[in-house]
Amino acid sequence: MSNSTVPPRISGLSEIAPSYAAILCDVWGVVHNGVRSFPAACDALARFREAGGTVVLLTNAPRLSPYIVAQMRSLGVTEASYDGIVTSGDVTRGLLASRPGAKVLHIGSDIHLPLYEGLDLTLVDSAEADVISCTGLREDERESPDDYDAELRALAARGLPLICANPDIVVERGNRFIWCAGALAERYRGFGGVTHVAGKPHAPIYEAALAHIGALRGTAVAKADVLAIGDGAPTDLKGAKGEGLDILFVTGGIHAANFGPTEQPDSSAVARFLSEEQLAARAFIPHLQW
């Protein structure tokens, strides 16, 4: 692994692309911002594929991958930019499937209800539940984690496990920060509750993604030949570090305010941030481009 706490800035993915057979790329913050796609990033991934590389998008979205494909297409991200996608929702569904007959309290938006279709479980209210599935805030445009403290405290006191379908704390939706399921899971742990998390930075989603790369290429790919691209320190960077993957850090995403001007990030500030977070990267780039 060639990661460093003092990574060089590169001008484009093309500078390091020849070293890798495959890419695991974050979606929100790198490929789109929930409102629009980033054409330069989409082009960079498409060019990597044209040169023979394999791209699997890796997202903490709490929805199943077909829904994310449709969402990305509506934002202008076409299948030319990737070969496959693995979502936290996909892996979370597997965790729920391992609990046949469960009585599940769903915390999140109704838009996430397809996550449970076809599974041997029953959605119930809090009084009947034996497990919690948290996909996010019920109304993330107007609520905050503070609104859930009483509910989460009471559930934790009963010893119910919480399955978190999206480990992200916040994401940028356009120019706004939106709270995610990870913020509620963090509160739940603080109240003494037990949480199970499948998405980044945890191993299950990486195991699924690396297996998907192998299936797409017809053979397993060594981790040394896989580049992880992401903008989130506690998810993308921490997860890739745990898997022993090289990392391209996109500094213009969720942590941009730490590095000075977005288009001209301060290299010393990037190095300081990585050192403080006990992380490292092969290189950094303000925004993904070729």
TrEMBL record:
One GO MF term on file is: phosphatase activity
Listed transmembrane segments = none
Amino-acid biosynthesis found in the keyword field: no
Q: Does the keyword Hydrolase apply?
A: yes
The protein's matches in Gene3D superfamilies, at most eight in alphabetical order, are given as:
HAD superfamily/HAD-like (3.40.50.1000)
Q: What keywords is this UniProt entry annotated with?
A: Hydrolase
Return the CDD domains for the record: HAD_like (cd07525)
Domain of life where this protein originates: Bacteria
**One Pfam family this sequence matches:** Hydrolase_6
Q: Name the InterPro entries on file.
A: HAD-like_sf, HAD-SF_hydro_IIA, HAD-SF_hydro_IIA_hyp3, HAD_sf
Write down any Gene Ontology CC term.
Answer: cytoplasm
| NCBIfam families tied to this protein | HAD-SF-IIA (TIGR01460), HAD-SF-IIA-hyp4 (TIGR01459)
Q: What is this protein called?
A: HAD superfamily hydrolase (TIGR01459 family)
